[in-house]
């Protein structure tokens, strides 16, 4: 486990805007409680609370990955409009202590879904 610091900063802040995630025109998640995670020089990621996602459209996969800063990630595919977007979502169900704010949240690959801030 590595801790965020000056060499690898990670910040988590509440996003004051409404965030909507769609796949092929189907709303997968919509929330006013997104968290914006900024990590080092990577693009910012919106983490959406699970309760604001349509979990009926998601299917857990066997994929797992490990981040030395956040912990072990699990994945979901999206099933919408007769299509499956494999491993389009990741989640840290038991993140490392420094990242507990993202527990119970989902993050979406922007090349697989449309993520937008709406009025």
TrEMBL record:
Transmembrane segments: none annotated. It comes from the Bacteria. InterPro entries: DUF427, DUF427_sf. This is DUF427 domain-containing protein. Residues 19-111 form the DUF427 domain. Gene3D superfamilies: Domain of unknown function (DUF427).
């Amino acid at each position: 486990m590595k801790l965020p610091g000056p060499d690898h900063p990670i910040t988590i802040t509440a996003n004051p805007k409404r965030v909507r995630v769609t796949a092929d025109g189907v709303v997968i998640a919509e929330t006013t409680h997104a968290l914006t995670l900024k990590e080092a020089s990577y693009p910012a990621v919106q983490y959406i609370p699970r309760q604001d996602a349509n979990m009926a459209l998601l299917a857990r996969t066997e994929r797992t990955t490990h981040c030395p800063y956040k912990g072990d990630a699990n994945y979901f595919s999206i099933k919408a409009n007769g299509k499956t977007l494999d491993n389009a979502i990741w989640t840290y169900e038991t993140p490392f202590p420094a990242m507990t704010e993202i527990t119970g949240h989902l993050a979406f690959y922007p090349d697989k879904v449309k993520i937008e801030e709406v009025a």
